[in-house]
Amino acid sequence: MVVFLFDFIEYIGLIIGYVPNHSLRLFYYKAFLKIKIGKNSSIHRCCQIRRGKITIGDNVIIGENALLDGRMGLIIKDNVNISSNVSIYTLQHDYNSPTFEGSGGKVIIEMNSWISCNSVILPSVIVNEGAVIGAMSLINKDVPAYTLVGGIPFKVIKDRNKRIEYKLNYHKSFF
Predict the structure, then answer these.
(1) CA pair distance 39, 20, nearest whole angstrom
(2) What is the mean pLDDT of residues 44-54?
(3) CDD domains under this entry (predicted)?
């Protein structure tokens, strides 16, 4: 019965994700999915959230159709931009397991990072401070600080300026 209740709460969270009211969505995510969400942070429509422990810092923007998997722990620190259609996984199946066991670990996204659209982050990864992940990248290991990375699997493309002065604070009225 408890599993059913948690599944139902997660399912309602998916439906709430389609409601064009930012305040209502944040209320549900905080009150029922128990996500810690900082000041001036926004989660745009159609986000899929897998229950678990998720912490979102201040000034974070999570774009449309993102997937946030908190089953093994997900920490998103301050001033992070997660673009549309990004998937962050903390748990997956072990392909070598004869019983299809799950394996994974916490994902940490450090402050001032930007994950561009359609990227996938796999379990047990740290995206270090100021890193930029190019569109459609596969992140299967830790990303160095203040670098631009891209590709499948990713490789470092170049360094990023360490002087970051902006603070993210944006959500569309109906998104």
Answers:
(1) 20
(2) 92
(3) LbH_MAT_like (cd04647)
Residue 83: which region, alpha, beta or left (left: phi > 0; alpha: psi -120 to 50)? beta
Q: How many CB atoms lie within 10 A of CB 34?
A: 13
The rounded radius of gyration (Å) of the Cα atoms in the chain is 16
Residue position matching structure tokens 């670098």: 147
pTM of the model: 0.93
Q: Tell me the domains of the chain and their CATH numbers.
A: 2-159 (2.160.10.10)
Interatomic CA distance for residues 160 and 117, integer angstroms: 18
Positive or negative, the Cα torsion across 104, 106, 111, 114? positive
For 7-47, write each residue's pLDDT tens digit.
898 899 989 999 988 899 999 999 999 999 999 999 999 99
- The pair of structure tokens assigned to 116 is 């561009």
How distant, in Å, are the alpha carbons of 91, 110, 126, 145, 155 from that of 38?
Answer: 24, 14, 20, 23, 31
With a CB cutoff of 8 Å and minimum separation 6, the contacts of 21 are: 174
Supply the DSSP symbol for 143: B
**Could you give the C-alpha distances from 85 to 43, 98, 156, in angstroms and in order?**
12, 32, 22
